[in-house]
Amino acid sequence: MKIKITALLMAFSLVGLTSCEDYLSETNKSGLTEDPFFQTELGMTAAVNASYSGTRLWYGKEFPSAFAETGTDLFLRGGDNKANQISDYTVDLNGAQTNLKDYWGHLYKALNTCNTALKLLPAPILSEAMNKQYEGEVRFLRAHYLWLITETWGDVVLQTEPTAGAVTTAKRSSVEDFYKVIFADLDIAIANLAPAKSTNGRITQDVAKAFKARMALTRASSTNNAEMYALAATLAKEVIASGRYALFSDFKSLWDMKNSEGGTNSEVVYYVNYTNDDTMNGDYDAAAGKGNNSHLHYIMVYDKQPGMERSVAYGRPYQRYVPTLHLLDLFDEKVDQRYAGTFQTVWLANMANLKAGTVNGYPKMAFGDTSMVFMKTVATPAQIANAAGRYKIFDRNTMYKEDGSLLLRSQFIQMSKLMDPTRLTANQEWSARDGFVIRIAELYLIAAEALMKTNPAEALTYINDLRKKRAIPGKEASMTVAAKDLNIDFILDERARELAGELLRWYDLKRTGKLVSYVQKYNMDAKANIKETHNLRPIPQVQLDAITNKDEFKQNPGYN
């Protein structure tokens, strides 16, 4: 069962964002609250469902991957990257950057939708139980949007009421003030919602607890707050101990399309649902692309290689994001199944009716034979000899310079875990895959990081329980680590192995104070450009141009 969000999208799209240029016109943006439609049960349900819509503009869409995964130690810009300012921190990363402007608008619009829904609650038309349920869901969603806003832009506008009329001034609120609202909202969500696994995409108490654990860890690592570390550990352990979630024994099958429904996947705590019925994939912006299109962005250009043509199975090659050599080297593929479960390294010739002797340079290649092999190591003479005339090798020295700089941006070891070989056509851009937001594996990592200083033995239990589950069968002992191995760098390495591509890395490096040093060490595209300034994104210029109190509300430090 999926949440149908379309009912109010047109109406709520009129609910603007704080201080954008359209706010200079005299329009009552909050008039929706007086609409008789909202005095009906159907209207209230539509208002709550509309509050979910902003999640579909973050999870499963292209540019959030740019914001959260590139410009880090894990991913570089691919051959057709559309946001090099973000990935490389170039001088033109400023308030004019289009994608940041768009997402400022999306997130504030989503926030205002939540504020409007909360203004309508409790509703006399609803039962007490339904009022509590709906308020809990919307409080969670508001907390989620506030987190993304303040962690992306810092001390910006904290809006907790629906906007009314023309708003031409903006006031900064501290990150601390944002988190006061975030934690207050999550406390209400936890109190109002029932403990359960979400089976239909709606927020449950488990979801709110898991997200609060993430928020507590964020504040703890940013402020070195012992109470927040303890809270993060407690909440993570509670969700793990609920017994409603289980780690997959096979990491690759976790990502199989048969397990792509978050409601039935045993690892998924919170997810954004998508469906093959595109009338139910609504969000605020059709330009962001239909449904979940995250499967496109990590695929390399394979269809111009020997014996290859574009196919449903191999996907549509958007070549936006390339793994760093550092990310590949984090895996010991001899013992850790996550390497094979995350990346694609072998391609089979799929050109229809391909016969031996017809492929230039590869006379032995026929349909179904190996076409390409990708290796993060240097190919040995024996491997090269074995491939001669049969298939093409891309090895470490073909793809990367010694320092990790890219030699190729269109052919690379691609991240495959988000792919969808069940699409109807080879060029279909959208997928029915649900967007996984929080998996139980993250809760193991949160518990380990939060306990690392106060109870290293218990922390080690959580990290080793996860690692043993991710071991190649029979290699569990080799995946076990000792107390001396446990530090923040190891935790970040483990988070990379487990969560690469899941929209957390930039935020992880920022909260741990590692963004600049890690990029300088591992990201050869961005190492010369990144500065402490880049721990925040630039405020969109349209926002700064629209307000009248320009001397009070200025651009984030370090940006033009």
Description:
- This protein is mainly α and about 550 residues long.
- The longest helix has 26 residues, at about 130-155.
- Helix 7 (about 175-190) packs antiparallel against helix 8, helix 9 packs antiparallel against helix 15 (about 440-450) and helix 15 (about 440-450) runs antiparallel to helix 18.
- The strands form four sheets. The chain has a three-stranded mixed sheet with strand order 5-6-7. The chain has a two-stranded antiparallel ribbon with strand order 1-3. A two-stranded antiparallel sheet has the order 2-9.
- The chain has helices at about 10, 40-50, 60-70, 85-90, 100-120, 130-155, 175-190, 205-225, 225-240, 250-255, 325-330, 340, 380-385, 395-400, 440-450, 455-470, 475-480, 490-500, 505-510, 515-520, 540-545, and strands at about 75, 270, 320-325, 345, 345-350, 370-375, 390-395, 415, 435-440.
Could you provide a short overview of the structure?
The chain is mainly alpha-helical.
Number of strands: 9
Please outline the major beta sheet: 3 strands, mixed
- Globular, elongated, flat, extended or rod-shaped: what is the shape? globular
Low-confidence stretches: 6-31
Class per helix and strand makeup: mainly alpha
**Alpha carbon gap, first and last residue:** 47 Å
Instruction: Quote the average pLDDT.
Output: 93
- Rg over CA atoms, rounded to whole Å, is 24 Å
The helix count comes to 21
Taken as a percent bin, the fraction of beta residues is: 5-15%
Indicate the percent of residues in helices: 25-40%
Widest beta sheet: strand line-up: 5-6-7
* Element-level helix/strand string: HHHEHHHHHHHEEHHEEEHEHEEHHHHHHH
